């Protein structure tokens, strides 16, 4: 049961309406085709899970302002959103996170299980409240965020050395690390994966972290570093980002193998193999929306994991995504526009992404 999921009908009508908006032309050929014989692979995600308090308003008020809107409360967090995005596309997902032993924590775990997520590595902290994040979302999708964290709920680097966690990372076809947990946790996760003899592809989603220079030594082992312009700019505090290509090249010089700047429903990619600037689709009617980058990450993972080898392990060559993979991931963001306060509920299925692509192609 997808108890928190937005209805497919609402998504479909949103996509159809958005097709009337002027935008870039995308041909069906640029998305490529996933072979009929596909293995979804296994993904391990390390990140945060919270309860999102979402306030949807016409405009975000200033210090003395007033706005009318609507309120919803649902499971969320960048880690959880990416987990749901990947699972909706058919990937086998296990989640390493921490929640409180309260109603919020139980709601998160029940939701994850309803989406067939492996929660065996989700830590439940006794006598602690699950963190809450408040998001104020304007009618164009622009969002202001207030995070209410509790250090008792956070993962620790010691937990990342547990045998079950090490085994999970070693047995993964891909590993996704969000920069939400404490820095020692991120270091331990990257160090563990780096030391594996058969290292899976590593994706990192950016966020604001203290002392980002500590992470530079690990960037050569990050296959995809993904984030908005602002999120990626946090990693290079001494060099203000001038544009997507500029921050991408800065992080490439620091060692990241591929940098994806996901902004305004479009994508800029810089790597040794690719120089891409994929514009927003015609169906993108808003400026931004919470969860759009999580949909991009999940879709990129799906494309990477959808052509595994005969033994179910990821083919080595599929460590590198191609242009059609990034284009498909960019299209996946459009589905998140059907936003009614439930961020993970907007994560699309494969059929929904393909439908948006088909509708866009048929309109030309």
Short synopsis of the structure:
The protein is of the alpha/beta class.
Keywords:
single chain, 364 residues, four-stranded mixed β-sheet
Write the layout of secondary structure elements.
Blueprint lengths: L7 H11 L23 E5 L3 E8 L11 E8 L1 H11 L3 E9 L2 H12 L7 E4 L6 E6 L5 E6 L14 H8 L3 E5 L4 H12 L7 E4 L18 E4 L1 H5 L10 H10 L4 E6 L2 E6 L3 E4 L13 H14 L17 H10 L17 H13 L2
Parallel strand pairs: 1-4, 1-8, 2-6, 4-5, 8-9, 9-10, 10-11
Antiparallel strand pairs: 2-3, 6-7, 11-12, 12-13
Helix pairs in contact: 1-10, 2-8, 8-9
Structural notes for this entry:
The two termini are 37 Å apart. Strand 12 and strand 13 (275-278) form a beta hairpin. This protein has 364 residues and is α/β, with parallel strands linked by helices. It is 29% helix and 21% strand. The chain has a 9-stranded mixed beta sheet, sandwiched between helices. Strands 3-2-6-7 form a 4-stranded mixed beta sheet.
